[in-house]
Amino acid sequence: ADLERRVHERTAELALVNQRLLDESRQRQDTEERLRRRQDELAHVQRLHLVNEMAAALAHEIHQPLGAIANYAQAGARRIRHDQVNPEELLRICERIASESLRAGGILRGLRRLVMRGGGAMELVDLNRVIADASAMLDFQARRHAVEVELAPAPENPAV
After folding, report:
1. pTM of the model
2. What are the pLDDT digits (tens) for 33-55?
3. What gap in Å lies between CA 75 and CA 77, rounded to an integer?
4. Contacts from 37-45 at CB under 8 Å and sequence distance 24+?
5. Distances in whole angstroms, Cα of residue 72 to Cα of each of 11, 41, 62, 125
6. Torsion sign over Cα 156, 157, 159, 160
7. What are phi and psi of 149, to 5 degrees?
């Protein structure tokens, strides 16, 4: 009887220890799940912040050529309206409008290439141009944070 009682007590102790271990395991799993959710939330907030920063920079980059197009078009219209049409000057204004619209299109194409997935065709690119374009896209942010960017392009204009 004494042996049965000790076996029963030991079994009860082991059952309690086992239950505590299960409870601790569940608590650990719950804690890990809460941590995963917090990490997911943080990653989401960081992505939103990045998208917001990129949208501000992109809006600024697109706004520049669009503003220039509007200014050139207004200047041309003003000259026509006041009968001050100089064909060569009007041609230069039209060429600037075309150039700025191509610049805006180039910004959008660059963004499309940036976000497209998959391997594109390999092609040589002018590294100085890539750096200048990247610098131009970040110019707004640099000025906003009082950072001066100075480029020193390679003299041989390397292709990569």
Report:
1. 0.46
2. 999 999 999 988 988 888 888 88
3. 5
4. none
5. 91, 46, 16, 31
6. positive
7. -105, 125
